[in-house]
Specification:
The complex is a heterodimer. By secondary structure, chain A is an all-alpha fold. In chain A, about 75% of the residues lie in helices and about 0% in strands. Chain B is an alpha/beta fold. Classes of the chains: A mainly alpha, B alpha/beta.
């Protein structure tokens, strides 16, 4: 019981620390929020312009579903980016600030360390995406008459678990490679953007990219969310179940595997002396 | 708070048995070699470079008794910090073992982490956060409640001469000396029974140095802490430590009580009065052990030291 209380306090320590950092770096938060809003608006305007684009002359296209389709893509991508960055940065920020050794010599389990950082990343990601959605929604007529909100929230929550697992796995990179690790995690994020069907169905991708799409949890979250918000699919429908079970498997496998890989990487870093400040 | 054979009842040390009959720190035949990493990519046809090896610690053994303050003196790159990082569970030794009150730093990592804390040469903080925010984070990691931590943080920082107005301002607005005091407060906050101080007063002004040195003594006298201190400052080592170990190129080249080492070196240098700690250090870390013949040839030990070091530099440059 005492140990649980200790791990709970430690987990909250990461949440509180990250919240304090967010407050102190509020200028950057505003910059990224504006950047993401502008980015989301420019992508969503492609949907609004559907009837004016080359090759569509004479066709009668209803832009509303396309706008919602793209808006879901930009919002999920924003959420995934902020959450993934929050998790992978748990090492690079500490390396940069020089606190990494202090955190790693604290008497807490690595699971507590990782979970503490992850739940802030999720809360931060959700708040960030909500604000983005609120502002972008003001500029477009969004037809949510066929939306099933319960399914949408369910998909986002179940998808978050696998995002965390993948994020923990990716955070190993800055642990192993002091500078290159952060660069590699950006590459991973870029590949996820390309293959996960953020702005288009994955069927347009070459077959080898579609294979990558099948192992990206974002693919299933996006597909499930679109079914929920565009087609009013309930949680128990076949369409949603086809997205849910891969996410359950990904969550169950990726989180313990991510923590296990992290633990191995930590041992390696402690043997080779890579657990030190940089910057 | 004396630590006898008992189960500690502080929240952090719950169920940790400290056997006071055991030595506080035991370092037994420890070695550590670092291999410089090679680039991930290389041009086709270009031969793969062999990994460069640096022997940071070479078969070091040292025992420190409970409540002792022991200093490790060494030049930059001599292996002092590597040794402290191994005791801090941040580095795994290649060979040998290290233990804190009988708990192995590798096998019993989590227990050891509850017993120790460390101050490193760089005050490692989230610089945009205030001392209160940084220390609150540290306190929670060490199982303190927010309310208890706030009271203790205010007490310790005030004791170290940090003004109330500074406690909630970003650390980046503080001088290096002030930041180092906050680092020391962070280590003291958790009342460690073994405190590892890695050049804690480097860069501090004389007044801050004295404040910190007083606090170190207080911690040992009032909290029964065992302290391992690494430093470049010979006067500080002489004043704070009961024993010192001199480390050079990863090996301990001298170990003993301060007075004993001074007497020994004075005898070796042919002097009647004891030498200073500075001279003890220079004697043991000189690249060429100065003999009676050298002293005769150059006139004094200092002149022999200067001449032989200059000769070594010339040889290195060639």
């Amino acid at each position: 019981m005492a140990s649980l209380l200790h791990q709970g306090r430690a987990s909250y320590a990461f949440f509180e620390r990250n919240w304090n950092l967010t407050k102190r770096y509020w200028g950057w938060e505003v910059v990224w929020l504006i950047y993401n809003i502008v980015n989301a608006m420019s992508v969503t305007y492609i949907g609004a312009a559907a009837q004016l684009l080359p090759g569509t002359k004479g066709l009668k296209i209803d832009p509303a579903p396309l706008i919602l389709y793209l808006l879901i893509g930009t919002s999920v991508w924003s959420y995934l980016s902020v959450t993934f960055e929050g998790v992978t940065d748990l090492i690079s920020i500490e390396r940069w600030e020089g606190t990494i050794e202090h955190t790693f010599m604290a008497p807490i389990s690595r699971f507590t360390h990782l979970v503490g950082s992850c739940w802030y990343a999720i809360a931060h990601g959700m708040l960030f995406t909500f604000l983005q959605l609120l502002v972008v929604g003001l500029f477009f007529h969004v037809d949510l008459s066929h939306a099933n909100y319960l399914t949408a929230v369910f998909m986002l929550l179940i998808g978050s678990i696998s995002f965390i697992g993948f994020g923990i796995g990716a955070s190993v990179l800055p642990l192993l490679f002091t500078e290159r690790g952060s660069q590699m995690s950006y590459i991973i994020r870029a590949i996820l953007l390309l293959v996960s069907g953020v702005y288009y169905p994955i069927s347009v991708l070459p077959s080898w990219m579609q294979s990558l799409a099948r192992i990206s949890p974002a693919t299933y979250v996006l597909s499930g969310l679109r079914s929920a918000l565009l087609e009013d699919r309930p949680i128990w429908s076949a369409d949603i179940w086809s997205c849910t079970w891969p996410l359950i498997i990904a969550g169950v496998v990726s989180v313990p595997l991510g923590v296990y890989i992290f633990r191995l990487a930590e041992q390696y870093a402690k043997r080779t002396g890579k657990l030190k400040r940089n910057g | 708070m004396a630590i006898e054979n008992m189960t500690m009842h502080t929240s952090l040390l719950e169920n940790v048995v400290i056997d006071s009959s055991k030595d506080a720190i035991v370092i037994d035949g420890v070695s550590k070699v670092f291999r410089k990493s090679r680039p991930l990519l290389r041009w086709p046809g270009k031969a793969r470079k062999k990994k460069e090896e640096v022997r940071a610690i070479d078969n070091v053994s040292l025992t420190i008794k409970r409540c002792e303050i022991v200093g490790i003196l060494g030049a930059n790159g001599s292996g002092k910090s590597t040794l402290v990082r191994m005791l801090s569970t941040l580095l795994i030794p290649d060979t040998g073992s290290l233990s804190i009150f009988g708990y192995d730093v590798v096998k019993d990592e989590r227990i050891v982490q509850r017993l120790i804390n460390r101050v490193s040469v760089e005050a490692s903080f989230f610089k945009r956060l205030s001392p209160m925010e940084n220390l609150l984070y540290a306190a929670r990691l060490y199982n303190m409640s927010g309310a208890e931590a706030r009271v203790r943080i205010n007490e310790i920082l005030t004791r170290l001469g940090i003004k109330q107005s500074r406690i909630k301002a970003p650390l980046e607005q503080m001088s290096r000396g002030m930041q180092q005091k906050v680092a020391i407060a962070r280590a003291f906050l958790t009342s460690p029974i073994v405190l590892l101080l890695d050049e804690p007063t480097t860069g501090l002004d004389p007044r801050s140095k004295i404040d910190v040195q007083k606090f170190i003594h207080e911690l040992r006298d009032q909290h029964d802490a065992t302290i391992l201190l690494t430093t470049h400052d010979m006067e500080e080592a002489d004043m704070l430590c009961e024993r010192v170990a001199i480390i050079d190129e990863g090996r301990i080249v001298a170990l003993g009580e301060n007075a004993e080492l001074k007497r020994e070196v004075a005898e070796l240098m042919g002097r009647a009065a004891p030498v200073s700690m500075h001279e003890v250090f220079m004697y043991y870390t000189s690249s060429h052990r100065i003999t009676e013949d050298d002293i005769k040839r150059y006139g004094s030990w200092e002149k022999a030291f200067e001449a032989l070091e200059a000769q070594r530099k010339d040889e290195d440059e060639e």
